[in-house]
Write a structure and sequence with these properties.
By secondary structure, the protein is mostly helical. It is built from 17 helices and 14 strands. The strands form seven sheets. It has a two-stranded antiparallel ribbon. The protein has a two-stranded antiparallel ribbon with strand order 3-5. Strands 4-12 form a two-stranded antiparallel ribbon. A hairpin with a 2-residue loop joins strand 10 and strand 11. Helix 1 packs antiparallel against helix 4. The N terminus is likely disordered.
Length: about 500
Amino acid sequence: MVISASNSCSDKELELFPPSLDDIQDINTEDRLQKFLNAGYLEMSSVNAFGTQLMAIGDVMGDQLYVTSGKSFAQTYNLSYNGFENEFSFYGTLYNAIMDCNLVINNTQVPNSEEVKRIKAEAKILRGFAYFTLVNYYSPTPTSGVNQEYGVPLILNDYDVSILPARATVAEVYSQIISDLTAGLNEAPAIPKSKVFLSKTAAKLLLSRVYLTRRAPGDAQLALQYSSEIVNGSSPEVFAPIDKVDYRNYFMGSAEDGSENQKETIWELDINATTNQVNGLGANMALPTIYDRLVIDRRAILANKAFFDSFPHTDLPSLPPTGTGGLPTPQSLSPDVRRGDTKTTVTNISGVPNAIQPAGLMSTINLIATDNPRGAWINKYPRLTADGNFQRNIKVLRFAEAQLNYVEALFLTGQTAAALTELNKFAVSRGGSTYTSATIDNILTEKGKEFYGEGQRFLDLKRYSLPIIKNSNCVMNCNVPGNDKLFTLPVDQTAMNYNPNLKQYPGY
């Protein structure tokens, strides 16, 4: 069944409407077409997609964060998945989003007005992003030169239960992604009415990401073009980099007016009490439940100590233990706003230690005693906000990525001096350490500091065939070569059983 949605009068929420069996056959108004586009948006914001899973596994499969013992995503962190046992649900969810987009893109019942062009353009961008995510995880990189026949199935027609597609080639999938994003770019709005809707800028950012991943002849120049158009040509009143002084509140402030629909954000998920009825976010599974240190029963993911210590900092004497069996609380000061100061003595009125308010985006309050070494909590996803529990919009595409994609594209086009200048300019804007040279390792290091907890680290390692090296808090698969099969996920056996034309990736 398709769950659809309609626009809110506030231009913020994707309000739900009751689906019926006739919906697919009778999409004959602009309003209905918008509802199916919103259904695609809601699938992408599902707990099984960018609402939680994709934002988490993109980091726990990398080398900067770790999963504390026995918690959510432990199997993924250990890279011990296979076709029969895994924690991946996004494969089917993204194909549901693609199905919704197909119904919009292929629709011929509604006259082709400017509004319909806008709706279809957003659907093409959304479909391109869904396919890009699938091929990133379930296929080898285009630059690897191996198993290029193992792309993902391309489904471009309306829903048909009898269609059992085989895998397309990696090249075919990338061609379709670029076609979708380019077509969407041409007719998407330059200024979205809200950042929960896709725009020309979102398409440009995704195209820069696609070209930096494919890296065919001429792709680096195209990545440079699109990222430069964002960095140097965006409307500053709509899209602009965030100031250092606003960075902390952008992620962890309690007020939504400093966090949602900000200039730094290019696209975010609409997370609220209404949409959460469909996307499944809440106390059982949401990004705050696995990151926020106050969700004691489910908190799972921390920055490892090596990554935590990689930010410039000055250590201070630890606070004494609090409570029976408590541990000393490490304290430090950092000029880098992405880590911030962990020093704090502020408590709430009750004086409960767990209620101590962290000073920065990483904190060392009430760490888990059994972790060795102990890392740091990540505060990008506060549980309680002005809108309530688990209701903060999730930032998926940000202006900072355009800035760092621009640096990477400069490097790949041989402009190393300019790349170094821009890389250090970005690092200084966050209060971070500068670099003596522009290299892929340094560019990805800076990107890792900017986007930890936002689902990008594993894919950055994968697209350059870099190894996963976990020097601590690891019990298995701690050093995985860049060409290992584990960089390509197995398709779940349930999908294999349903579609006999779908081949499993070699080695599983």
